[in-house]
Design goal:
By secondary structure, the protein is an alpha/beta fold. It has a single domain (about 10-220), classed as Rossmann fold. Helix content is about 40%, strand content about 20%. The protein has helices at about 15-35, 35-50, 65-75, 130-145, 155-165, 175-185, 190-195; strands spanning about 55-60, 80-90, 100-105, 115-120, 145-155, 205-210, 215-220. Strands 3-2-1-4-5-7-6 form a seven-stranded mixed sheet, with helices on both faces. Helix 2 packs across helix 3 and helix 5 (about 155-165) runs antiparallel to helix 6 (about 175-185). The protein is globular, with a radius of gyration of 16 Å.
């Protein structure tokens, strides 16, 4: 299954505001039911086990409603791990009121070196072409003290079939169309490893893991 890159409706300025909200709510359910929150939680557990740290400041890039790190944080609290989350998105209307939030470009993060323990993203990597993804990893590594956490989809024909089967669970037509596009433009674990390990990122150790229902996790260690 070859990767095909096409813009998702939610990324465009033409997406109606009501559909933006409906689609972001669909994403919250998808992350809750189909492994998105669990993947981020396990990545943070891995960093905690490796570093011995129990408290992390975390920048969530392309955050949307920011539900993934906060839900993972609630589960991690039972293990004594706490998160202090800041949301960043390029579109202000995607961000949830009441959260610490910032409108900015993920490829040019407006922070000093080492401003956060972790820089995290969920369902963002597949939106980037390989040079952009490599650039994001470099920029996020600059801002993070411990690691960059990438939580994304695995491109696979069976995954695409599962998206079609899940159409009745999606309340927004945007979610259905974007769900298909997301799987088609996602990467395989081997592709992600190659992109994250090449060029300027070569000095950073990269770990790739597979998770429930065609999710993958990548950790780019900052040191």
């Amino acid at each position: 299954m070859q990767r095909t890159n096409s813009e998702e409706i939610l990324d465009s300025n033409a997406c109606p505001p009501a559909e933006v909200v409906a689609s972001l709510r669909d994403l919250c359910r998808i992350n809750r039911w189909f492994g998105g929150i669990a993947t981020t939680r396990r990545l943070i557990e891995r960093v905690a086990a490796t570093t011995g740290k129990k408290q992390f400041s975390l920048l969530e890039v392309a955050a949307g409603f920011g539900e993934v790190p906060r839900a993972a944080g609630r589960e991690l609290a039972a293990k004594g791990i706490t998160l202090d989350v800041t949301d960043l998105d390029r579109v202000s209307t995607h961000l949830q009121r009441g959260h610490r939030r910032l409108v900015a470009d993920a490829l040019a993060l407006p922070f000093r070196d080492g401003s956060f323990d972790l820089v995290s993203c969920s369902l963002f990597a597949h939106h980037l072409q390989p040079p952009e993804l490599a650039g994001f990893a470099k920029e996020a590594s600059r801002v993070s003290r411990c690691a960059v956490l990438i939580n994304d989809l695995i491109r696979h024909p069976l995954h695409l079939a599962l998206v079609y089967a899940a159409f009745p669970l999606m309340r927004s037509y945007v979610s259905r169309l974007d769900g298909v596009a997301s799987v088609r433009r996602s990467y395989t674990p081997d592709e992600i490893r190659t992109i994250l390990s090449d060029g300027a990122n070569r000095r950073h150790k990269v770990e790739i893991s597979r998770h429930y229902l065609f999710r993958m996790g990548a950790i780019v260690w900052s040191n």
